[in-house]
Amino acid sequence: MSARMERHHFGPARRAVPAIGQGTWYIETAQRTAAVAALRRGLDLGMTHIDTAEMYGNGAAEQIVGEAIAGRRDEVFLVSKVLPQHASRSGTISACEKSLARLKTEYLDCYLLHWPGAHPLEQTISAFEQLKRAGKIRAWGLSNFDVDGLEEALTIAGRGGIACNQVLYHLQERAIEHAVLPWCEAHGVAAVGYSPFGHGDFPGPRSAGGRVLQEIAKAHAATPRQVALRFLVRQRSLFTIPKASSAEHAAENAGAGDLQLSDAEIARIDAAFPRGRAPRSLPML
Ligand SMILES: NC(=O)c1ccc[n+]([C@@H]2O[C@H](COP(=O)([O-])OP(=O)(O)OC[C@H]3O[C@@H](n4cnc5c(N)ncnc54)[C@H](OP(=O)(O)O)[C@@H]3O)[C@@H](O)[C@H]2O)c1
């Protein structure tokens, strides 16, 4: 476990979880040994929060994660997600059991509803609570929920129920800062930002914003991606989960774990990537 990886309290259980973790969407498209090695290198360097989902590669990403965490389950904060179309009371339980089998583990640290769907939220939350009582999950959370959806979940579950809301958050998409992030902070819910590199659309070195990242990176002997990751976890309620399918990329991302940016540098990044107006609806991928 890297002593250099910053940890933040994750939701109401206040468990210390690395601010920078690892995503796995499309990881199954990489060469399997490289993908497993990337995740293991990330674990070695303290990125022990691993995010996956039944959706990713129709379960193939979970199988890769299962291989990567074999023999080191206790190190990992393992998160998976149920698809909205499976999120009835019985469907959620069955989806979780299938995820556990693919991941070759007895429990998830957190289980999320991937995005709001047609099944009543009461049913999904009731299944989450049943899974918790059975020891199959330690906590549950939501993903792609706007403030109205979060309020609905809070009314059903009460304070202390929702561990996190996983939402789109990168330098060029800061919509959550208007309402969702303040709501999460006010209610002790972890805000996990996904697609921190814009899902493959990271600001290039010739763009104005990219140049700002390069200059700040140079001052810290760091890289622009490391600077971006640091900015995205600059508050204690924030977490980020970059996906890497090579050990080199994983190591670079983990290198952001102890980078410290000054207030002036944060202000420069803030100005270079303005958060824009509040959106009508929460953006998601
Ligand atoms: N809840 C949701 O609805 C939702 C939606 C989207 C994503 N997510 C989660 O968030 C995770 C991250 O988001 P994402 O996968 O969409 O995109 P991302 O993390 O923003 O970007 C991934 C891309 O960045 C590249 N990359 C990573 N580290 C790099 C490095 N150090 N140098 C150069 N390139 C690097 C990866 O390449 P390589 O693969 O070649 O390393 C990949 O092409 C997902 O994997 C998933 O777990 C959740």
For this entry, give a set of tags.
single chain; 285 residues; alpha/beta; 7-stranded parallel beta sheet; two-stranded antiparallel sheet; 10 helices; 9 strands; 38% helix; globular; binds NADP nicotinamide-adenine-dinucleotide phosphate
Mean pLDDT: 97
Name the shape in a single word.
Answer: globular
Radius of gyration (CA) equals 18 Å
Strand content is 5-15%
Order of helices and strands: EEHEHEHEHEHEHEHHEHH
Distance between the first and last residues' Cα? 32 Å
Strand runs, count: 9
Number of helical segments with 4 or more residues: 10
Unreliable residue runs = none
Let me know the largest β-sheet. Answer: 7 strands, parallel
Helix content: 25-40%
Bound molecule types? NADP nicotinamide-adenine-dinucleotide phosphate
Strand order of the largest sheet: 3-4-5-6-7-8-9
Output the structural class.
alpha/beta
Q: How would you describe this structure to a colleague?
A:
- There is one protein chain.
- The chain is α/β, with parallel strands linked by helices and 285 residues long.
- 38% of the residues lie in helices and 14% in strands.
- The protein is built from ten helices and nine strands.
- It has helices at 32-44, 60-69, 89-103, 121-133, 147-157, 180-186, 208-219, 224-232, 247-254, 263-272, and strands at residues 7-10, 15-18, 49-51, 77-82, 110-113, 140-143, 162-168, 190-194, 238-240.
- The chain has a seven-stranded parallel sheet, covered by helices on one side.
- α7 packs across α8.
- The radius of gyration is 18 Å and the shape is globular.
- The model has no long low-confidence stretch (mean pLDDT 97).
